[in-house]
Amino acid sequence: MNSPRALIALSTIALTAFLISCGKDDKPKPDDQVRVREASLNLTCATDRTNAPNTFERPIVIQVSLDGFRADYMQKINPPNLNKIAKAGIYSPGMIPSYPTHTYPNHFTLVTGRTPSHHGILSNVFWDEARKEKYDAFGDSSGDGTWYQGDPIWNVVEKNGMIAHTNQWVGSEVHVNGQDPTCYAPYSSKVNTAQRVNIVMEWLKLPAEKRPHYINTYIAIIDSAGHSAGPNSKEVREAVMEADREVGRLWDFIQKSDLPINLVITSDHGMQENFQDKIIFLGDKTNLSGFKWSDKGAAVMLYHDDEARVQQAYKDLKAKENNYKVYLRNEIPAEFKLDNPDRVGDLLVISELGHYITDRTFNPNKPYRVGGGSHGWPASNKAMHALFIAAGTHITKRRAPITNFSNIDVYPFVMELLGVTTAVPFDGTAATLHPFILQD
Ligand SMILES: [Zn+2]
Questions:
Q1: Is the pTM of the predicted complex or chain greater than 0.85?
Q2: Which residues pair with 125 in a beta bridge?
Q3: Cα-to-centroid distance, 20 and ligand 1 (Å)
Q4: Quick one: fold of 58-114+150-272+385-436?
């Protein structure tokens, strides 16, 4: 069995610029967690864990997130490595994301099989009327595990006697149900795409008792380029090609490995071009003072404790409905699956594709400007559709593209590949992707 220091040594070899910030006496801390720091990557590893001996030969799953990879980039940009991997395995021309088509809800759906209403991360920003608190993906609340429900795949893997390592995946560092993957790293914009792939390969080089059976890593550059320059931009093309090179490097590594590795590549949502002349200033249509807002952009949820204020705002917004739709909470269409009464707004306002909802009060002193692209619109818009590719030792070669399936079905697929189960309920079904798993 490896000692705690042995794992640090391996990580240090893997990522040469590491500084080790464990205790000066080199003894494990009380919780046996040792922090390994690089200038950017900030890994925390539990060094006392090993795979159960009877699991050493079990399959490995690597889950890669390409944030904001719009499904049709596969045709429009034609990234060669992603297309090669798709041909070696299975592929969907458009996986249907969960609503709202934002980063945090969909990343956590991909690893819990639950809709956002059921795993709790209803949007990137929302209010909980029971807690009387705001969740903000970009604030401290996103690190509080009590917001998150469901059984994340890394917890399932660990409870089934195997090691899971995660890199910057939403929710993997927040101790959901008090549990963690063996190694995890919180999000850092300073980690470049090559480093995000290098760490995966280094983890695969660990000895059998320490080698994770589940690994994920998160790649941000395509979403960033989409927001700043729009989905049809040269910047997005370059970001897709850079991600493609790195994923191709990982695929080549997998091909040379003797390990039973399956690679699952997903995105969380697509991307739509923004238009400066399609901004909807909601406060021009009704008095929204005192209302709390969720995200801005494609849609907003609005919250107010005074039911009369809610009804008045609804009446005004309904009367001026143009390029958007407004719903009271109890009339939100079932297709959106927004059934979390504490967290769904009193009002939901959804703009038509390409329109952008905001308010002048957010930026009172100068003209409001939108970036090149946004997401958040319903999945009925193909611009919001997401990427799904899977290939490896336990996955069939491509037959027909897989159409019309939801991202809640990725979680049971990954569990079946790994041979693990959970007693915790989830919304997805294993039946969707089961036919593409090669049985031993
Ligand atoms: Zn995203």
A1: yes
A2: 136
A3: 31
A4: Alkaline Phosphatase, subunit A (3.40.720)
Q: How far is the CA of 124 from the centre of ligand 1 (A)?
A: 10
Partnered with residue 279 across adjacent β-strands are 356
pLDDT bin (cut points 50, 70, 90) of residue 124 is very high
Residue in the structure block whose two tokens are 């042995």: 6
Span from the CA of 109 to the centroid of ligand 1 (angstroms): 12
Tokens of 323: 């390029």
Output the CA 58–ligand 1 centroid distance in Å: 31
Residue pointed to by tokens 């390029």: 323
Question: 288 alpha carbon to ligand 1 midpoint, in Å?
Answer: 28
Distance 270 CA to ligand 1 centre (A): 8
Question: CB count, 10 Å around CB of 188?
Answer: 16
CA of 229 to the centre of ligand 1 (A): 15
Helices (H), 19-101: 73-76, 80-88
How deeply is 296 buried, as exposed, middle or buried, from its count of CB atoms within 10 A (0-12, 13-18, 19+)? middle
Long-range contacts formed by 307-310: CB under 8 A, 24+ apart: 310/346, 310/347
> pLDDT tens digits, residue range 163-175?
999 999 999 999 9
C-beta separation of 417 from 391 below 8 A: no
- Count, residues in the chain: 440
**Distance (Å, whole) CA 163 – CA 208:** 10
Q: Where are the domains of the chain?
A: 58-114+150-272+385-436, 276-370
What average pLDDT does range 45-64 have in this prediction?
Answer: 97
Going from the Cα of 269 to the center of ligand 1, the distance in angstroms, rounded, reads 6
CATH fold group of domain 276-370:
Gyrase A; domain 2 (3.30.1360)
List, as own/partner pairs, every contact residues 25-32 make where C-beta atoms lie below 8 angstroms and the sequence separation is at least 24, other chains included: 28/4, 32/4
Answer for the pair 91, 402: CB distance below 8 angstroms, yes or no.
Answer: yes
Q: Return d(Cα 76, Cα 83) in angstroms, integer.
A: 12
Residue 85 near residue 240, CB atoms below 8 Å: no
Using alpha carbons, select from 152, 214, 200 the residue that is nearest to residue 177. Answer: 152
Q: How far is the CA of 188 from the centre of ligand 1 (A)?
A: 15
